[in-house]
From TrEMBL:
PANTHER family: ACYL-COENZYME A THIOESTERASE THEM4. It is an enzyme of class 3 (hydrolase). Its EC number is 3.1.2.2. It is a peripheral membrane protein. Pfam families: 4HBT (PF03061). Gene3D superfamilies: Hotdog Thioesterase (3.10.129.10). It catalyses: octanoyl-CoA + H2O = octanoate + CoA + H(+); hexadecanoyl-CoA + H2O = hexadecanoate + CoA + H(+); (9Z)-octadecenoyl-CoA + H2O = (9Z)-octadecenoate + CoA + H(+); tetradecanoyl-CoA + H2O = tetradecanoate + CoA + H(+). InterPro entries: HotDog_dom_sf, THEM4/THEM5_acyl-CoA_thioest, Thioestr_dom. It is found in: Cell projection, Ruffle membrane; Cytoplasm; Membrane. The keyword Hydrolase applies. The keyword Hydrolase applies. This is Acyl-coenzyme A thioesterase THEM4. It comes from Paracholeplasma vituli. It comes from the Bacteria.
Length: 175
């Protein structure tokens, strides 16, 4: 199913997952979809591997953590998720040098915490490679990075505007 992109999120300078100047990082771009899901389409490189041609489990976890933690931005744009608990299930090897789709969404938001789920899908956009459930503390972006670091937090326009993303996955969302 094709989902309309409602907003592209900001990137940072040095974050391992989204940092545009982190040479060892993934340099991912995150998109908010009309169905309340945050998505990134990315691929790993050889220095992200564990076994040959397989992404390291810690990197898989980082991708899911970041994507779910960003999902709170849809309803609370100045809020970020700080991880309290994360449970990842590795279902199939995540390949390197091959496109993967990482999705995250909120399942419950109450007070100063929220829960979310996420998946990593293969390039066919339907085969599940990993799943995740997480609990997060809500924190204001200004409290996390400070006013002096906001210059490292920036909107990076796409070379080709992404207006919709096709994903063959049924999202079970509740809030």
């Amino acid at each position: 199913m094709k989902y309309k992109v409602t907003r592209k999120q900001f990137n940072s300078d040095e974050c391992f997952v989204c940092g545009i100047h982190n040479h060892a990082g993934l340099k991912t771009a995150f998109y908010e979809l009309e169905n309340g899901v945050v998505v990134t389409i990315t691929k790993g490189d050889n220095f992200h591997q564990s076994y040959p041609n397989r992404m390291h489990g810690g990197i898989i976890s980082a991708l899911l953590d970041e994507t779910i933690g960003r999902a709170i931005n849809i309803s609370e744009p100045e809020t970020w998720g700080v991880t309290i608990k994360l449970e990842v299930s590795y279902r199939k090897p995540v390949p390197l040098d091959e496109e993967i789709v990482v999705c995250g969404w909120i399942t419950k938001s109450k007070g100063m915490t929220f829960k979310g789920e996420g998946v990593i899908l293969a390039k066919d956009r339907k085969t599940i490679l990993a799943t995740c459930e997480g609990t997060y503390f809500k924190q204001n972006i200004h409290d996390i990075i400070g006013e002096h670091r906001l210059s490292g937090w920036q909107f990076i326009p796409d070379t080709h505007a992404v207006t919709e993303i096709d994903i063959d996955y049924e999202f079970a969302r509740s809030e």
